[in-house]
Write a structure and sequence with these properties.
Layout: H1 4-20, E1 46-52, H2 55-62, E2 68-76, H3 85-88, E3 96-103, H4 110-121, E4 129-130, E5 133-134, E6 140-144, H5 147-162, E7 173-176, E8 180-182, H6 190-193, H7 198-214, H8 226-232
Parallel strand pairs: 6-7
Antiparallel strand pairs: 1-3, 1-6, 2-3, 2-8, 4-5
Length: 233
């Protein structure tokens, strides 16, 4: 079932995307590896929560990252009572469209996930928007799970700023993860299930291709879907 907000997004962007997809999405910025990072060591699965615009594309990118075991689209930054698509789309809940990434710390580090985040997932200099989507629910935000993640995130943002990787200041917020709430089922694996959706073609498929080109050591051909993750449980 497609809600009014989802239908409106597709209708408004469909014609534009079909006409402009040949031009490609915004070029990626290749961020250097973080100077401060958690070491790759064997241990229990870890979780990262990141917000970088519409969760369809963010989920789609991380589903192709080696060492990632599951990626859920959802909401973070607000209360559980308002964690619902139509309500979050109003822009007044405090939530941001986010993804929860479960990863193996021996195979991929938290810093590497952030390197992908700043390089190909989104533009961290856009305040409360990404591409055609506007509102605080599309803000750039890192929701850290512990002090170690906070340290890596804050140090990396400072490093990128000092290196002037971007032409404008980074506006990414670093906030404590006070709760992540999975989005509705029809939002999960959206890029995998709807690769011909004009919005996906123009805004998100180029990000996946940039990941493959710029980070071959992190690339996995087969995306890890929510369904696959459930089957492993």
């Amino acid at each position: 079932m497609i809600t009014n907000g989802l239908r409106l997004k597709s209708l408004l962007l469909g014609t534009l995307a079909l006409c402009a997809c040949a031009l490609g999405a915004e070029s990626p910025k290749v961020a250097p590896a973080p100077a401060v990072d958690n070491p790759k060591t064997a241990g229990p699965m870890q979780t990262a929560v990141l917000a970088g615009g519409c969760f369809w594309g963010v989920q789609g990118v991380y589903q192709h990252v080696h060492g990632v075991h599951n990626v859920l689209s959802g909401y973070a930054g607000g209360d559980k009572s308002t964690a619902e698509y139509e309500t979050v789309s109003s822009g007044g809940t405090g939530h941001a469209e986010s993804v929860q990434i479960v990863f193996d710390p021996k195979q991929v580090s938290y810093g590497e996930l952030l390197q992908v985040y700043f390089s190909v997932v989104h533009d961290p200099t856009q305040l409360n928007r990404q591409g055609p989507d506007t509102g605080t629910q599309y803000r750039s935000a890192i929701f850290y799970a512990d002090d170690a993640q906070k340290k890596v995130a804050e140090a990396y943002i400072k490093q990128l700023g000092q290196a002037k990787v971007f032409d404008r200041p980074i506006v990414t917020r670093v906030d404590a993860n006070t709760g992540f709430y999975p989005a509705e089922a029809y939002h999960q694996d959206y890029l995998v299930q709807h690769p011909r959706n004009p919005y996906i073609v123009y805004n998100d498929l180029p990000k996946v291709e940039h990941l493959k080109q710029l980070f071959p050591s992190l690339w996995r051909d087969e995306p890890v879907t929510v369904a696959m993750a459930k089957n492993r449980e």
